Amino acid sequence: MNLLGDVTRPSLARRLVILASGGIVAALLIAAVVLALLFQQAALRRFDANLSDLIDNLIAGTTIEQGEVVAPALTDLRALRALSGRYWEIAEVTPDGKVQAMEALTSRSLYGALLQTPPDLAQRLRAEPGKPIAYDAPGPQPGEHVRVLARWTTFYGLEQPLVFLAAEDRRPVDREVLGFVTATAVAFGLLGLGLIVAVIVQVRVGLRPLFNLQTEVAEVRRGKTERLQGAYPSELLPLTDELNALVEHNQETVERQRTHVGNLAHALKTPISVMITEAGQRPGPLAEVVTRQADVMRQQVDHHLRRARA
Fold it and tell me: What is the pLDDT of residue 221?
């Protein structure tokens, strides 16, 4: 028997499978998206923590000599190699509110390029002094995307605060996140497929009493059994009781009709026998017609009486 039934007709099994499958797919999709976002946020927090350490080293090593800012000679080995993906920069805020890099206060890895800054970076840093601001920007290499961390810091001997920026190529993190998303999608896809198969099996097993009931009703209709005798769940007991009551009612009705037909047949057979006997005692054309038609009537009565008994 087809579990989902005729696709052109409403099916309880198909409805249960579709609803359960839709719920499973929606729940797994939401869970996968949430996990991917959490993993991405965790990866970016680790990334920002490394950039924050680089800024801490910059601030700790930066000194003010005769009113001039002197950057530390060594902050990170990668920042010494050109276009290595690890960059830093010390900038100042211009009178028009723009963050502008100071000459000779950039890492060698920038190779003469500068980190791009959003137009409102100074306002955001001034609104939350000491709190780092993270943003994404194009890197010095073509196609490179960097994660930038900026911090606003004041120094004794300087009227204007300095802005320290540290950046790193974020493509490795993006690849890590993409790998996690791919693995999660495959795992959740297999999990969803397994759950849908489990739902189909569950619906099949759960609806088995209905299939058994259908088979037993068919046997009652064909006359193999007189009533439903299977052990059914409590939810189906009212239905089976009503079906048995209906079968018993039909049997009683048939029995009454059979009795009625039998009584009618017996009531007709006596007058017919009398007519045949009387016609036999008075020979003639009329008697022959009466005898012949009475004999036909008796045959019809016997025929319908046999059908009623069957």
Answer: 77
In terms of pTM, does the model score above 0.90?
Answer: no
pLDDT per residue as tens digits for the range 181-195: 999 999 999 999 999
CA gap 64, 161 in Å, rounded: 12
In this prediction, residue 277 carries a pLDDT of 79
- In whole angstroms, give the CA distance from residue 14 to residue 7: 9
Q: What token pair was written down for 45?
A: 């927090």
Instruction: Read off the tokens for 40.
Output: 């991405």
Span 109-125, pLDDT tens digits:
888 888 999 988 988 98
In whole angstroms, how far apart are CA 127 and each of 165, 175, 205?
Answer: 17, 34, 64
- What's the confidence (pLDDT) of residue 3? 47
Q: What is the pLDDT of residue 9?
A: 62
Q: What HEC string does the chain produce? A: CCCCCCCCCCCHHHHHHHHHHHHHHHHHHHHHHHHHHHHHHHHHHHHHHHHHHHHHHHHHHCEEECCEEECCCCCCHHHHCCCCCEEEEEEEECCCCCEEEEEEEECHHHCCCCCCCCCCHHHHHHHCCCCCEEEEEECCCCCCEEEEEEEEECCCCCCCCEEEEEEEECHHHHHHHHHHHHHHHHHHHHHHHHHHHHHHHHHHHHCHHHHHHHHHHHHHHHCCCCCCCCCCCCCCHHHHHHHHHHHHHHHHHHHHHHHHHHHHHHHHHHHHHHHHHHHHHCCCHHHHHHHHHHHHHHHHHHHHHHHHHC
Residue with tokens 């306002």: 123
Per the CB < 8 A criterion, the answer to whether 124 and 96 are in contact is: no
Give residue 46's identity as a one-letter amino acid code. Answer: R
What pLDDT is stored for residue 206 in this prediction?
Answer: 82
Angle (CA) 186-199-180 rounded to 5° is 15
Give pLDDT, residue 299: 79
Ranges under pLDDT 50 in the chain: 1-3
